[in-house]
Design goal:
Blueprint lengths: L15 H9 L7 H4 L6 H16 L2 H11 L3 H16 L8 H11 L14 H15 L3 H12 L5 H6 L7 H11 L1 H6 L7 H24 L3 H28 L18
Amino acid sequence: MTLTDPGNIFPAVTDLKASLLRIMDHKDHWAWPIFGGPTASLDQLKLHFQQEYDVYVRDFPVLLSRIHSRCPVAEVRRDLAENLYEEETGGLSGTGPHPDLFLYMMQGLGFDRREFRSVELLPESQAYRDWLDEATTKLPWVVGAAVVTIFVEGSVHDRREISQPVRTPTPEQAERDLIRDNPLVRYHGLDPRYLKLKRAHARVEEGHRRSAWRIVVDHARAEGEKMLCVEAMERSLELWLAYRDGVARAAGIERQTRRTPRRLGRSS
C-alpha cells in the first residue's frame, strides 16, 4: 500500500492532533545547535541557506497555492489564501514577498543574491523536495495541507506554541526579543535591519500556525484521510532528517555519536 493508494483497512487514529504533535516533537536535528551557534562559518551557513532556499523557501508560495487550488472548502480556501497573500506580497505584515525577504537577509550576511540562483541540490535535499512536490500534487488536499502548513512551516516547538494563550507583545518588546534571540545577530554581526523576514513571521506566524492545525484536524475526518496524514507526516520527518544529515555532512559537520533511526509508533 502506498500513500497515494489509501486502501480499505486502516488502524484507527482516535486523536489526529495528538498523533501529529508526536511527530512534530521529533522535528529536531543534532546539527541545529552548530548552525545556530557561534562556531558555524559563513561558508557553512551559505551552504545551509542555499539548500533551504532551493528546497522550499523560494517556492513555498507555489506549494501553498497547489493546496489552495485543490481544496473544495470555501472557508479553508480563504485561510489558505490569506497565508498565500502574505507569502507572495507581505501584505499582512507590511513587509514584502517572503522569498525576497529571505534573500535580503542573505545580503546582510554578505552573500550575493546570484549565489542563490541555480543552486545544485544535494541528493538528500532533492529527495525531500521531490516529496514536497508529490505531497502537494498527488495526495488528497488535506494531506498536502498537513505536509506543507504543519510540517514544513512548523517546528519542534509547535506543541508549546499552539497550546499557549495568544500573546500580543508590544512592538518594542517584539523587537527586543527578535534581536536578542537571533543567532545571526548575536554571533555573525548581522545588522538587525536585515531581519525583515523574521519580523514578518513574528507578526503573522502565530495565527497561521493555529489556522494550519485547525484546517487539518477539522477536515481530515475519514479514517483513511487521518491515516494518510499520519503516514505523510512520518514520511516528511524521515526525509527531512535525511536532508538535514546531508547538509551537515556537506558542510563538514560530523556527529560524535550516531543516532539509530526508529520508526515512530502508531500513536492515536
